[in-house]
Amino acid sequence: MQPAPPPPRAPLALRDRPAVTLRQVAERAGVSMITVSRAINTPHQVSERTRVRVQEAVSSMGYVPNLIAGGLRSARSHVVTALVPTLTGPLFGEMVQALTDALELRGFQVMLGQVGYAHSREDELLRAIVGRRPDGIVVTGIMHSPEGRRMLMASGIPVVETWDFTDTPIDMLVGLRHEELGAAVCEHLFAKGQRRLALLSGGDERAARRARGFEAAAVRLGLHKPAVRLGKSPTTHADGREGLAALLADAPDIDAVFCSSDMLALGVLTEARVRGIDVPGQLAVVGFGDIDFAQTVSPSLSTVRIDGTRMGQTAAHLIADRAEGKAVEEPVVDIGFSIIERESA
Amino acid sequence: MQPAPPPPRAPLALRDRPAVTLRQVAERAGVSMITVSRAINTPHQVSERTRVRVQEAVSSMGYVPNLIAGGLRSARSHVVTALVPTLTGPLFGEMVQALTDALELRGFQVMLGQVGYAHSREDELLRAIVGRRPDGIVVTGIMHSPEGRRMLMASGIPVVETWDFTDTPIDMLVGLRHEELGAAVCEHLFAKGQRRLALLSGGDERAARRARGFEAAAVRLGLHKPAVRLGKSPTTHADGREGLAALLADAPDIDAVFCSSDMLALGVLTEARVRGIDVPGQLAVVGFGDIDFAQTVSPSLSTVRIDGTRMGQTAAHLIADRAEGKAVEEPVVDIGFSIIERESA
DNA sequence: CTGAAAGCGCTTACAG
DNA sequence: CTGAAAGCGCTTACAG
């Protein structure tokens, strides 16, 4: 976080006026600071008359309590930090929304830190986050960097890893096994009669895992080794169009494509249509994510759905229970996945 | 899918001890607390020998400075909070990424707070954010609630409003005039020869503003009052399909649709194709956002692009300059927009 | 180059 | 129901 050049300090006077403090409110209300604190945080511990006096002072002075200071003393920040790889994708939105809503009900505020798919600055960001002592940390994906894992473990902060699965979680985990998912999609296509499979995948780790499961299942089923085209994440519609073109150039006889995202799959649908390839008649297409348009494009898109709402809610309760010192019975949850069958496969 | 039984948990030997403090590091290194602080934050103020000793203590003990405590004393949190309406849309991703990158270079970390399109809990969230005393706040859109405006102004925290325009900003602003944008799209369609215009719009405020500009321009140009269909935000692909169907039911002779998002426009393209309506021959379509697929769908989508990167970078420097006490010459910036002409219009 | 004291704005832990 | 004192973990402001 803090880079080399010593930051030029802002003269405090430049801020319009320093914020109103608890002490000033207490003076105005004619009570002690601790009484103001109670009137705000635990009003039932204070007499009606006092509460009203304090309330008047608070609103007339526009007092907004400094939660940082309170958190420092009480060692409870009421903040949970969620690390998300990107804001561009719709995939994590549902989970983050559910996480936010569920934690809000339990008195926590969610702050988001953006990681990007690159792992380069992850440790640095992590240091900045751990340094702010949140009451919990939700990680998208599995934390791999040994330095990062050590820092999180040593911090004593409750951690939930999500969206993936490992036998060695840092602390708690709500995710799914992407190899199994890849295998299940392969079996689904096989059951539908497809025999020359192909794979179009972004470069992130979970997509790679799905790809591995898909390929292994194809071998088990006695099929040809799938034609594979790998790109990078996040995946785009253009990647989907180019990807199908490249696959067809190499392997013109493919009859099914499993795409690592719905956007990629949408690109494949577009390219197929432009080329006059019938979906699913000549080519079956499966996406991943079940986002927005999957149900209403034409042909509608068969895809794999992860229950982001359940994942977010589960993560929220794990974090909140741990932060409140409650016992967590089931710290590792596999939420699975479901294949949504529509027109495209 | 049946989840497999969870594996045994990793041992958490390191967890549950209170975090290492500056005092402990100082004892280990045999120097005072302030010297440790300097060795970490302003190493040039400390002798080589001391710096090495401190560095060894820091890494052997896994010390992560408590930035909250430091921030309390120094009145500089090095955090900028950005309020975004939703994570589901790709629209804000580019801006937030640019904001994050630019602020990181200047020593600030960006934390995101999710507002949702509903304004109901906005004040509550704002209180939680102002209470954490960030060094800056970036708001998506214009803040309207009088309570919220008062709180932000009284806080003395630098504020940048974005994505919209007003003559009464709270503090600073980087945005654009959505009425002008709507009018420009109307004029573009007129110039292309379209005469029976229609409008398909989500319910958020900026979309409504674009709609107003669009309708006003149609009147100025002597056209029929556009057929209008309003929905809610965020808009979906399904809304686009249903929207076009509804517009055609009411006004079968329309020859152009301006959609308040690219996703809506994609739904319109799908519905038109299914109905055998030629785009742009029988129906011109314009989106908003220039996201991912706009360039590569078929027909490619004419749309309106906002330079999110420039908006994010500009906001970053406004915030950082203000936080560092530098003078801000141009606190209100209109970044404009551009109409991207492709096949659909 | 180094350090002892004070203080940031709250809450905790006692005490009445 | 109310309050005086101590302290959370740092940095500031002095002083040497």
Features:
434 Repressor (Amino-terminal Domain); Rossmann fold; 345 residues; DNA-binding; homodimer; alpha/beta; 3 domains; disordered N terminus; four-stranded parallel sheet; 12 helices; six-stranded parallel sheet
SSE arrangement:
The structure is a homodimer of 345-residue chains.
Chain A: H1 22-29, H2 33-41, H3 48-61, H4 67-74, E1 79-84, H5 93-105, E2 109-114, H6 122-130, E3 136-140, H7 146-155, E4 159-162, E5 172-175, H8 178-191, E6 197-201, H9 205-220, E7 227-230, H10 237-250, E8 256-259, H11 262-274, E9 284-286, E10 303-305, H12 308-323, E11 332-334, E12 338-340
Parallel strand pairs in A: 1-2, 1-3, 3-4, 4-5, 5-11, 6-7, 6-8, 8-9
Antiparallel strand pairs in A: 10-12
Helix pairs in contact in A: 1-2, 1-3, 2-3, 5-12, 6-7, 8-9, 10-11
The structure holds a DNA duplex (16 and 16 nucleotides).
